[in-house]
Specification:
By secondary structure, this protein is mainly beta. The protein has four domains: about 110 residues, Rieske [2Fe-2S] iron-sulphur domain (Rieske Iron-sulfur Protein, 3-layer Sandwich), CATH 2.102.10.10; about 180 residues, FAD/NAD(P)-binding domain (3-Layer(bba) Sandwich), CATH 3.50.50; about 60 residues, FAD/NAD(P)-binding domain, CATH 3.50.50; about 80 residues, FAD/NAD-linked reductase, C-terminal dimerisation domain (Enolase-like, domain 1, 2-Layer Sandwich). About 10% of the residues lie in helices and about 35% in strands. It is built from five helices and 34 strands. The strands form ten sheets. The chain has a five-stranded parallel β-sheet. Strands 30-31-34-33-32 form a five-stranded antiparallel β-sheet. The radius of gyration is 24 Å and the shape is globular. Bound molecules: flavin-adenine dinucleotide, 2-acetamido-2-deoxy-beta-D-glucopyranose (2 copies) and FE2/S2 (inorganic) cluster. One 2-acetamido-2-deoxy-beta-D-glucopyranose (NAG) binds next to strand 29.
Length: about 475
């Protein structure tokens, strides 16, 4: 018999339940069990049981539907990974750990401590405090995913110096990935962390301040309000911005760029006009009335939202010796270092070597990738010499359905399709040199996470494996 005990913060919240028969869970397997009203993931690994909360700390997916690989479970929705023994987060996009637990394998009884934080089944990773005696400043330019994870990692690694995050936004770091997906999002509800969090861990956040230039010799940054601030180490994570349309009519009132919380939108029937371009935005009374395409087609429109790629926010680096590529992305190595000592760069702004793409220099605009960059930059600021080694994971919502994508498919030479686009259920495997380099899927969870996990382990998925329907993809 496997016994589970779940305890909340209050002693009276303790519940013990017989959850399964030992024979029911084989080694290397996991299952969802109910203990009281707690949803728990029970795992058996090397003969030892462990248990964590079954609810992903990102958007709450059931981890039991994900992928178990050794001591970690990968979420079926967006690829977050958790250690099944400690509940610790191992891969983004989630940012919090699962409630910690204790196990008692001798008596074959499990004891799970489910710690409820603010009524949510999440646990913030331990973080150290600021030590006023440490006279060292890390400045983080930008208030996005990369900067926030850099700040948190510094404190998790017990960095005691000063952390200043500076952003030209007027909002604390927020979840940009939810922008294009929910309607009428309240700015407050999009925040990654509340203001109390930044106070508690002594992370200074300066909003509405734009960096105008950097002096890497003097180690100073000049801001738009005239302030000149010194740093000892700096992370540049100013990201990219949406490109604006370059044609007559783009200054009309109801032309929006998909970028900030104000751009919300309502999803309707979507139609694609491929191999075409906008020639002119036609208006009436300062508002869009129609969009004329190069092909001659004119589309009536009440609102125009443009999402046509991005430009890196690196103008303020011009005149500095920081190396950039021809498109003005900042070049970093696998430690997120630029070619200037103590200057690091992370997130959408970088051109970085992607290990799974044989070290090719790439620029990838994914939330999870930016987070991982921020973390690796922090570790290397602290001289931990940890290399970046991620499998990019991206998701987007089209007409209410989530398309998931893992890997790096640029330059693929072949695609193996399972299922059908028309049925809104498919998995596309992208191959290069007879190896799977990326996967995109709709309604086939956890197949994309399975591919991500395989690639993360450094295991090759051959064309022969891709061709046949096999159990490893967990596709029925
Ligand atoms: C609408 C939308 C939807 C998205 N959806 C998804 C998704 O579903 N999944 C996914 O994986 N990715 C998604 N992305 C991409 C994802 O948001 C980015 O990859 C991620 O935000 C990159 O993080 P970053 O930290 O590099 O930069 P950003 O998050 O862009 O942050 C840059 C920060 O720098 C600040 N800044 C810029 N210039 C200056 C300056 N000179 N001085 C001071 N501050 C400055 C900005 O104000 C901002 O705070 C989406 C992006 C958008 C815009
Ligand atoms: C960094 O790269 C820039 C641009 O290539 C170059 O001008 C500069 O000398 C380099 N600096 C160092 C310290 O390598
Ligand atoms: C990536 O960029 C760095 C710096 O410019 C360069 O030295 C390296 O050769 C590039 N790597 C590849 C695989 O092109
Ligand atoms: S819900 Fe688990 S990674 Fe998003």
């Amino acid at each position: 018999m496997v016994l589970c005990l779940v305890a909340g913060l209050e002693p009276e919240e303790e519940v013990t339940d017989v959850v399964c028969d030992e024979a029911k869970l084989k080694d290397g397997e996991m299952m969802e069990v109910e203990v009281g009203d707690h949803n728990v993931l029970l795992v058996r690994c090397d003969g030892v049981y462990s248990a964590i909360s079954n609810q992903c700390t990102h958007y709450g997916a059931p981890l039991s539907k994900g992928v178990l690989s050794g001591h970690r479970v990968r979420c079926p929705w967006h690829g977050s990974c958790f250690n099944v023994k400690t509940g610790d987060l191992e891969e983004y996009p989630g940012i919090d750990c699962l409630p910690c637990h204790k196990e008692n394998s001798e008596s074959k009884m499990l004891t799970i401590f489910s710690v409820q934080i603010q009524g949510q089944p999440k646990r913030i990773k331990w973080m150290g405090a600021r030590d006023q005696a440490v006279l060292h400043t890390v400045m983080l330019l930008g208030g996005g995913a990369a900067s926030l994870m850099c700040a948190e990692t510094l404190r998790q690694e017990n960095y005691g110096g000063r952390i200043i995050m500076v952003s030209r936004d007027d909002l604390l770091p927020y979840d940009k990935t939810r922008l294009s997906k929910i309607m009428n999002a309240e700015s407050e509800s999009l925040l990654m962390r509340k203001i109390e969090f930044f106070h508690k861990y002594d992370i200074e956040v300066w909003l509405k301040k734009e960096a105008l230039s950097i002096d890497t010799n003097k180690k100073t940054v000049t801001f738009d309000d005239g302030l000149i601030q010194c740093y000892d180490q700096i992370l540049i994570a100013t990201g990219c911005r949406a490109k604006s349309l370059d044609c007559p009519g783009v200054d009309l009132e109801n032309v929006l760029m998909l970028e900030t919380p104000e751009d919300m939108l309502e999803e309707r029937g979507v139609r694609f006009y491929m191999n075409d371009a906008v020639a002119e935005v036609q208006g009436q009374n300062r508002r869009v009335k129609a969009v004329k395409l190069k092909s001659g087609i004119t589309i009536e429109a009440d609102l125009l939202i443009a999402g046509i790629g991005v430009n890196p926010n690196s103008e303020f680096l011009k005149g500095s010796p920081i190396r950039m590529d021809s498109k003005n992305y900042v070049i970093v190595d696998k430690y997120m270092r630029t070619n200037i000592t103590d200057v690091y760069c992370a997130g959408d702004l970088t051109s970085f070597p992607l290990k799974m793409a044989k070290g090719q220099n790439v620029s990838i605009g994914h939330w999870q990738t930016a987070q991982a960059h921020g973390r690796i930059a922090a570790l290397n600021m602290l001289r931990r010499e940890v290399e970046l080694n991620i499998v990019p994971f991206y998701w987007t919502v089209l007409l209410g359905r989530t398309i998931r994508y893992a890997g790096y498919g640029e330059g693929y030479t072949e695609m193996v399709l399972k299922g059908r686009f028309e049925n809104m259920k498919f998995l596309a495997l992208y191959l290069k040199d007879d190896e799977v380099v990326a996967a995109a899927g709709l309604n086939v969870e956890p197949a994309v996470s399975v591919v991500a996990e395989r690639l993360a382990e450094g295991r090759v998925i051959t064309k022969a494996e891709a061709d046949v329907y096999t159990t490893w993809l967990q596709l029925e």
